[in-house]
Amino acid sequence: MRFVRVAWFLLAGLALFAGYRRAVAPISTVSMRCRTEPSTGFYCPLTCDDSVHHLIGMWPAVYPYLILATPAVVAGLVLRRRASFAALGAYAVLSALGLMNWGDEVWGALLAGVWMGASATLVTVAHWLTWLVVDGRPERDSESALTPALPH
Questions:
Q1: What is each CA distance from 146 to 55, 121, 149, in whole angstroms?
Q2: Could you give the count of Cα atoms lying within 13 Å of 13 in the half-sphere of its Cβ?
Q3: In the chain, what is the straight-line distance between the N-terminal and C-terminal CA atoms, in Å?
Q4: Where does residue 28 rank: exposed (0-12), middle (13-18), buried (19+ CB within 10 A)?
Q5: Greatest Cα-to-Cα distance within the chain, rounded to the nearest angstrom
Q6: What gap in Å lies between CA 131 and CA 128, rounded to an integer?
Q7: d(Cα 137, Cα 53) in Å, to the nearest integer?
Q8: pLDDT tens for residues 100-118?
């Protein structure tokens, strides 16, 4: 189970790294205006080649990725199958929020939840298979389901 925990924390680390990369990226990577009007720039003192964190600050550029890292951190700390499935659901919801706000420079970053959800699916399947193979699936028969287990 240690590799499942490492995989969840690695996924959270990748989300934070993606947030950092987005913050230091040029404004032209997130603004449609720079693509259509490259000569005018975004605002008076800034050009399309300046970093995103010069335009909106470091935290507004990074906090959507902090939100995206949260389900992976929780699933890695809890390390239960239900938490893995809950993380998948959270990534589906966050991806939908990103899709609904794709034009926004800040909240549109939640669309990165799509690739995180795909990666989280792989981690969840690995978690499920580890439970089946290593821990063993509990045997169920009609007698053991009705009577409590007594010590021998």
A1: 65, 35, 10
A2: 7
A3: 30
A4: middle
A5: 82
A6: 5
A7: 50
A8: 887 776 777 888 889 888 9
